[in-house]
Specification:
This protein is an alpha+beta fold and 264 residues long. The chain contains 5 helices and 10 strands; from the N terminus they run E-E-E-E-H-E-E-E-E-H-E-H-E-H-H. The termini are far apart.
């Protein structure tokens, strides 16, 4: 099996083929080794024209401006979405999603607390790379080799995405904040393998997307809590602790969580 990363990413992100929300079949990838495709380094939006279309609206960032606002000027980029008890979708129940982009055309993010059964070692092996341990380098943590690859969502779940601190000059990167970037090109893995990758990173298979107005509607229906993201939760905390830690950013005890709305 070969493996690779998507190669099209800029301030317009990408055209996601399927709306992640409400697609039960995408969630099955969370517990299986995901299929990954080796992609050439070219600036090609996804999906291809021969991929099946969804009956739900997909986010389209191809004409988006970074100055455009979502309805009511809601912009949740660099926020966590925390699934409420009322979120019965098997894909998203119990998840925390980091939002990379949110504008009038939709939203795109990555689930950060659900692992696949693939490790970073397995991912690198599938692209004929291996993690070199460079002496005195802070960018080659020996434990990274066995770190899990995250299930990022049901959109393009056979492709790789990397959230990381913004070190390096990669061919397809979206700067989310001064501290967090989102890369979809294979060169970030190549840099990681030789000890020149980002100091902190999260590698996922798949991402999560919402069409225009869909995320806002789900928030209104108390599907999600929202809070400004915390990089320590995103990069450092064990996966099983991230949901509770994200709730505590809102001052909520997870044991007391109900279906009522609350945002920060």
């Amino acid at each position: 099996m070969t493996c690779g990363l998507l190669v099209h990413c800029s301030s317009i992100i990408c055209k996601t083929a399927k709306k992640c929300k409400g697609q039960v079949d995408g969630g099955e990838n969370a517990g299986k080794t995901a299929k990954i495709l080796l992609m050439p380094k070219q600036r090609k939006p996804f999906p291809s024209s021969n991929e099946p279309s969804s009956d739900r609206e997909s986010p389209d960032f191809s004409t988006a401006s970074t100055d455009r606002k979502t309805p009511d000027e809601l912009n949740l980029a660099d926020h966590f979405l925390i699934a409420m008890p009322s979120m019965h979708d098997p894909v998203f129940g119990g998840t925390v999603v980091y939002l990379c982009e949110h504008n009038a055309n939709g939203a795109l993010g990555v689930i950060i607390n659900r692992a696949t059964d693939m490790t970073v070692h397995g991912l690198l092996d599938r692209v004929d790379l291996s993690l070199e341990i460079v002496p005195n380098s802070e960018r080659t943590d020996p434990g990274l080799d066995q770190a899990p690859v995250i299930y990022g969502g049901p959109v393009q779940s056979d492709r790789g995405f990397v959230l990381h601190t913004p070190q390096g000059d990669f061919s397809s990167t979206l700067p989310v904040t001064d501290e967090i970037a989102f890369t979809t090109s294979k060169d970030v893995l190549e840099a990681l393998a030789v000890g020149r990758g980002p100091e902190r990173l999260l590698i996922s298979l798949g991402c999560s997307g919402w069409g225009a107005g869909q995320l806002e509607d789900e928030i209104t229906r108390n599907g999600w809590l929202t809070v400004r993201a915390n990089s320590s939760i995103l990069f450092d905390l064990p996966l099983e602790q991230r949901f509770s830690a994200a709730l505590r950013l809102l001052g909520i005890d997870p044991l007391m969580l109900s279906g009522e709305a609350g945002h920060a």
